[in-house]
Amino acid sequence: MNETKLLYFNDNYQTNFSSKVVDVSIKKGVLIFEDTLFYPRGGNQDFDTGFVIINNDTLPIISVTKDRKTNQVMHLVSEEAWEKLASVNIDDDIRGEINWKRRYQLMKTHTSQHLLSSLFTKNLGIETIDVEISEDHGEIVLDGKLDYETLISVQQQANGLIAKQLQTQLELINGRFHVKISDVDDRECGGTHVKNLSEIGKIIIDQYKDGRLFFRVGIEAEKAERQHQIDNLKLVQIYPQGVSSLEDLAVHLNGLQEENVRQKCRIQELANELIKVELAREESINGVKMTLVHGPEFTTKEMKEIIGQQSQEKERVIICICKNNSLVVASNTTPFASDIIALCKKHDSNINGGGGTTFAQGGPWNGSIDDIRGMLTSSMP
Length: 381
Fold this sequence. Notes:
- The protein is of the alpha+beta class.
- It has 7 helices and 21 strands.
- It has helices at 100-124, 148-163, 218-238, 246-279, 300-310, 337-347, 369-379; strands at 5-6, 16-25, 30-33, 35-36, 50-54, 57-67, 72-77, 93-98, 128-133, 138-142, 168-173, 176-181, 185-188, 203-209, 212-217, 283-285, 288-294, 317-321, 327-331, 352-355, 359-363.
- The protein has a 6-stranded antiparallel beta barrel. A 6-stranded mixed sheet has the order 16-17-18-19-21-20, with helices on both faces. A 4-stranded antiparallel sheet has the order 9-10-15-14.
- Helix 1 crosses helix 2.
- The chain starts with a strand and ends with a helix.
């Protein structure tokens, strides 16, 4: 079978066409015509949708692809209309119409991608690695990272060129189509584009992360801009002092995070000082010198290191309740550390753990320091 003739190359703005059926697949819900205005997904631009009329039956086209081997364009009919394909025959006349609203938005987005990519390359030396053109947004993957100020500058430059109403041209060079935007950009492309940059309306860079940029154009840019304004208004209401935009919020949050780190460091310093004070205290329980400490800020590993620095100074038993109610016991006398854990297990069968004569650990201890003191007083000989 012959390859499908692509009518959109003649005129990106044409919306209606006539042709004949070349092939039909009822099982796959696919139609192939001699000619088509429907753009098949390719060159990272999304496909056209619309409908065709065959034998007075209207068949919605929901997806369009191209067979790279035969160069035939395959039009997928919505599943609800597959039964109507039974009456379709080869050489039947068809009339087709694309969804112009979708096509026009794709044209604006694709031309905008060319414009942005050219600015990144010419002004910053950053190449475009990959693109994705869909109806509601465009995506550009760059081979370099950019800061917020640079992105805003590129956005302003792009909108400045749009305001100049520069013309675009589609040219066939050596059998391949090229899209030229005045003296701004000239590259090979088989997609659909607007004739004048003024048709785009506006470009908004919506998101950016790790070299991946999302942008919106035309009506979608207006929607995004309105949403940004709503977000900014909410920020003004939440943070009336000095925060009036998403950028201000980012600075504000960064300051809060830095202050949070400082406060955590300060809390840890105070906890270290407090634990040293508590470790200096002693009491006698059934004739044994003991130090009972509550250190919920410390892990068992951290507490073992702290206790290890002081446990050799005096003959005593140190018992600490740490983070997650775990127990750490150090002893350089009798009873041994493992003996204390054994007493805790006897007191509460849910406690696990063990150790040696000088260090032991276990848990969880679902009680207080006073509960440990009471348990030792009643259980330790």
